[in-house]
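Worked example 4.2. Below are the chains of a multi-component assembly; read each line carefully before continuing.
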Amino acid sequence: MSSCLVAVVAGVGRGTGSAIAHKFASQYLVVCLARNLESYEEVVSNINKSGGNAIGVTTDLSSAKSVKSSFDRLEMELGGDFGISAAVFNASTRPVCKPFLELTEDEYAGGYDILGRGAFLFAQATLPRLVKLVNVSSHPSSLIFTGATASIKSFAEFVSFSNGKWVLRSLAQSFAKEFGPQGVQVAHTIIDGVIGIPTTVQAMKEAGKDTQDTLISPEAIVDAYWYLHTQPKSAFSWEIDIRPFGEKW
Amino acid sequence: MSSCLVAVVAGVGRGTGSAIAHKFASQYLVVCLARNLESYEEVVSNINKSGGNAIGVTTDLSSAKSVKSSFDRLEMELGGDFGISAAVFNASTRPVCKPFLELTEDEYAGGYDILGRGAFLFAQATLPRLVKLVNVSSHPSSLIFTGATASIKSFAEFVSFSNGKWVLRSLAQSFAKEFGPQGVQVAHTIIDGVIGIPTTVQAMKEAGKDTQDTLISPEAIVDAYWYLHTQPKSAFSWEIDIRPFGEKW
Amino acid sequence: MSSCLVAVVAGVGRGTGSAIAHKFASQYLVVCLARNLESYEEVVSNINKSGGNAIGVTTDLSSAKSVKSSFDRLEMELGGDFGISAAVFNASTRPVCKPFLELTEDEYAGGYDILGRGAFLFAQATLPRLVKLVNVSSHPSSLIFTGATASIKSFAEFVSFSNGKWVLRSLAQSFAKEFGPQGVQVAHTIIDGVIGIPTTVQAMKEAGKDTQDTLISPEAIVDAYWYLHTQPKSAFSWEIDIRPFGEKW
Amino acid sequence: MSSCLVAVVAGVGRGTGSAIAHKFASQYLVVCLARNLESYEEVVSNINKSGGNAIGVTTDLSSAKSVKSSFDRLEMELGGDFGISAAVFNASTRPVCKPFLELTEDEYAGGYDILGRGAFLFAQATLPRLVKLVNVSSHPSSLIFTGATASIKSFAEFVSFSNGKWVLRSLAQSFAKEFGPQGVQVAHTIIDGVIGIPTTVQAMKEAGKDTQDTLISPEAIVDAYWYLHTQPKSAFSWEIDIRPFGEKW
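Applying the procedure described above to all four chains together yields the following structure tokens:
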């Protein structure tokens, strides 16, 4: 399997992560990382059933030990010198929304644990393998981070999530400036709206709202990731915002 | 000709405008607007020779009379009720760079004349025809504006150009909020780098610099415009930055 | 009168402009510019009655001829070589809020006429006289522009006003970079909220709202202008936002 | 001592922190927090000698235990219900500048430890005491954070510092939105330039550069903090940038 071209997607679950995995499976062996087996097993199974190649590895991205263990396993499966064509950091954290003075230190740190430390560990594991394939792959090696409205605005009673998202954007900008000149496409997306996954679609319907106007289809988001991945070195985009046409902003 | 799908590109010359016209000609009859015949005649001729359809109309975008006259002519050729699938405002102005106190009122106004008044006139002429095709075309009706680094930073001794570009971005943002919910994709690009047209390539070569690292290929820019045009309503991007991988920012 | 230290305030009316004039009158002869006599006559009269010095000059800031005529008159009164210690551009325009396709060219241009052309004319008239007093006055020569929320966000159906405010901010940034190194303090304020003048106070009261939480007192704004004016060259601020503590943002 | 009005300054050392402590000592008992005794002992001693009141408490802001211990001690000295009129978070971390792939996890985390966790701990300790004095003090209770150019731009090979500064700004914005409406002034400064402390002045002189043009005087920075602290509730500023007039930006 070592000669496969590889894409790694961190944060595969319902919605965007799953859609990204499916899209990149059209061209790559896709490694799906998620904290729980249940998050990725169906995606991996579906990709493999439909003629693609996918591997799922249970990974706690906030743990150096867990990330190392996952990449050790990948080395065994893919060969020690495997390169990565695309790495997508789509992991996130459930936002904690409460008055700041009621926030515990653990709740506060939750955003940073995944989006700050987790992104660091993911980047250190993937960037050397992305750099290796610069000028080799048909598309530039790409490292893409998933951001949100909270990446550029920090709201009241929402610091844990905002902090994490702001750090992630800081990382993405620094990486674009350090690794862009080496030929790696580093990009950050701002998903400004609610993503249409079964639970949000159901909630909108129950509220009597039109889901077509107000929800972003995961497949449409994925087109943006694929476009970013396939940009030539002559014209890299660092950031792109994505919102449904009916969204107020 | 009235049943053709139409794209209108303002500011067709060498470089980006010409590349946009060629790209959109793959699917649309392309109307090329430029101040001088010499700017667009070769592009129009090449598109028509290669099996596409293009019309060139000499237009001073800063003049209400000239813009009206051009669209009157288009109505005669395309039918009074012709719709527009995509409109690209790529017109610009030659930056005047001099100490502010040496700037004449005319030099100062130059940026606004094209990028402020011109964009207003272009938008008023195209938006009703874009709105008309919402939900009719295979892709959302799109209105795309070409910005630059100077759209988000204002430099010393450069106010005329910056003013124009800031106004253009203000317009694009307002339009996205007003016409996005109506189904029109309104987007703004930030071209952050030098575009590789014959004169800039030559200048780089003479300076002994590698043009691959430092110039943006017009064709690569155009891929961004086409991507923006083909985004589904579920996932519109308002703004995208584009720079060559070797650019410092 | 030629040995007086002079401050020029453009856009003196009720509210901020009047408060700025009063504040700067504590240290300067204040020149009040406004389109109509009624806007400034009471302010000028009050300053002169209370021991200060003020001159009012009816000026259409959007007209080169009117601005020239006003400064010619000032030269006659103050001497041809009078310097300016502080210049505040507080002029604005009544926002036109309507669907873009119903906007006339004149309505559209209204924002730019005052905030783009007017600011240009004001800056060309005052900057040479501000530069002249660098290192002479007790405080750095200062050129301050009044912005608004619409200076950084462009809303639907609001392009005329936003365009003008974005241009004004572009100007202020360019000037800060060109004239800051020459010792002139150039600053831009973002007034994010409703200013408490008699009409807005009355409207809030009629709506049963607490004016203390939601309105900005003009005197409080003026403290910001005075603080900006008195910053030492070692620590210039370019931009400051101002909002009442109860404002949502 | 419990009836004293109290200001708390975190990150007192040479330069800004020391200058802030001296300035606020004109009106408050100043509590100086720093990791090492040497950082604050001279400041505390000088304030007390010159008729002010200051207390120094050695505190590792990144440690919940250390912060708790420091505030326990303050409760003993100042009374359990002491209020705080102003709290300034001026702590920072020495930037680590190296290629990302050579960065250790500890080096990476360094920025967040002080600026993310430290600011959280400081805010949780001070905000209840700041809220308590709203509408009691002569000036609004104020919580001010010191940012830098790296708070709004993330540079190559600089992620640890940028991450921390971006988080700090996210916090400051969220706090302004949550505690501003409660009457607490929350502000963030962007210090864009090198601060003139003995070591930087010496370095500039050795490089043959004029220190007057290029260094920010700590006393001038402090004027900005004092201005922010004394703003009335009617006109709060959230953010202010500060740079020497000769700075390129």
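Take a moment to check your reading of the output against the notes. Strands of chain B lie at 6-10, 29-34, 54-58, 86-89, 142-148, 185-191, 194-195, 215-216, 239-242. Chain B has one domain: 6-242.
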